[in-house]
Amino acid sequence: MMYMKNPRAFVAGHSSGAVLISPNGSSVCVRKKLGHLWALMELLREPASREEIEQALQVEFSEIEGLLGVLEQREIVLFDEIEKLRASIPPRPVAASFPCKKVVVGICGAVQAGLIIPLLVVLQRLIAQQVEIVLTDAAENFVRPELLSYFGFRVWTDMYAGADRIDPETGTRINVPHIYLARSADLVLVIPATASTVQRLATGACSDLISLTVSATEAPVIVVPTMNRAMLKYAPVRKNIAELRNCGIFVVEPGLGFEVSLESDDQLHFCGIGLTDGTIVRAVMAILTAHRELAETLEPSPGVDEIETVKASNFNKQRPAASKDSISIS
Predict the structure, then answer these.
(1) Which of these, 2, 154, 252, 319, could form a disulfide with 47 (CB 3.0-4.6 Å)?
(2) Is 93 left (phi over 0), alpha (psi -120 to 50) or beta?
(3) In this predicted structure, what is the pLDDT of residue 182?
(4) Stretch (H or E) spanning 69
């Protein structure tokens, strides 16, 4: 039997005292044996036996038995067999198999761009083997290319290729960035999508790298609009969002979020990406599944005169909006 710090508990403090924060959120203050407490917290990052604790702290076990009892009672420290202790540490999430080889993520100049990195890491671990990032000029006000590079993402900010841009698969120079990104992507995700980006995508403006990539890709495209509620209600914005759907682009309805412009408003509104990264990840997984189903040849069923065949090669291109038939994702 060994001791180890509970990975779901926290301890914080200074020279006058410490706060023990249990997994259930309850807390208690400790003002005695702080030296032993900090030494235990450092030691018990890995499983340790009673003998190892005595040797490391250079004390008789009886001197710290009361403190360990409190820590165990508050679930700050676990006491169990080493296999069970190690099993209490959750593994870093990783997909057994990736639904995509490459995802191209377009990040626009909305405030929520500053909170996008955890989502990108999840995409890299669960959705795609490779995630490439396209930043608009406005997005660089909220997230720096250098920061994204530290996490292993290749970042694109310019429509024009540089001498250092090499295709990792072929080893050849990338001459036209948007064609390379469009052809190599299995999915294009534009998040957070501002009103200006939505307008460029809906009108085929092709005036920045994101709109160029979307216009040239045959991969499914997901757009996640993020803006003030008043902007979402504005008729031209609504028209542009409707046009994206008509073009075969998946538009994710706004999730709950705080409006930055309403500092004193404690109410959540449907205006943003959503409160958790898992919301978008689930949406991406569901949309990829729906896209594969829609891309398969649909066989006519009794009572249906004609069903349009939708192929993967042109699913994301201009096509009539569905009239009578609809697809339900459960």
Answers:
(1) 2
(2) beta
(3) 96
(4) helix 61-73
Say what the alpha-carbon torsion angle 125, 127, 96, 99 is, to the nearest 10 degrees.
Answer: -160
**Among 16, 255, 226, 17, residue whose Cα is nearest residue 106:** 226
Strands 10-14, 100-107: pairing kind: unpaired
197 and 106 Cβ atoms separated by less than 8 Å: yes
Cα distance between residue 164 and residue 280, in whole Å: 32
* Closest of 152, 110, 164 to residue 128, by C-alpha: 152
Q: At what angle do helices 277-295 and 117-126 cross, to 10 degrees?
A: 50
Quote the tokens at residue 87: 């099993």
Element (H, E) at 237: helix 235-246
Q: What is the CA radius of gyration of the chain?
A: 26
**Partner residues linked to 27 by β-bridges:** 21
Note the pLDDT tens digit of each residue in 283-322.
888 888 888 777 664 444 444 333 333 333 444 445 334 3
Q: Specify the pTM.
A: 0.72
* Domain 100-293 homologous superfamily, CATH: Flavin prenyltransferase-like (3.40.50.1950)
Contact between residue 37 and residue 18 where contact means Cβ atoms under 8 Å apart? yes
CB 77 within 8 A of CB 84: no
For the domain spanning 2-87, the CATH number is 3.90.930.60
The pLDDT of residue 252 is 87
Residue 274 to residue 75: CA distance in whole angstroms: 32
- Alpha-carbon span 155 to 152, nearest angstrom: 9
Residue 319, pLDDT score: 39
Pairing of strands 27-30, 2-5: unpaired
Could you tell me the residue ranges of all domains in the chain? 2-87, 100-293
CB 281 within 8 A of CB 263: no
In whole angstroms, what is the distance from residue 292 CA to residue 307 CA? 17
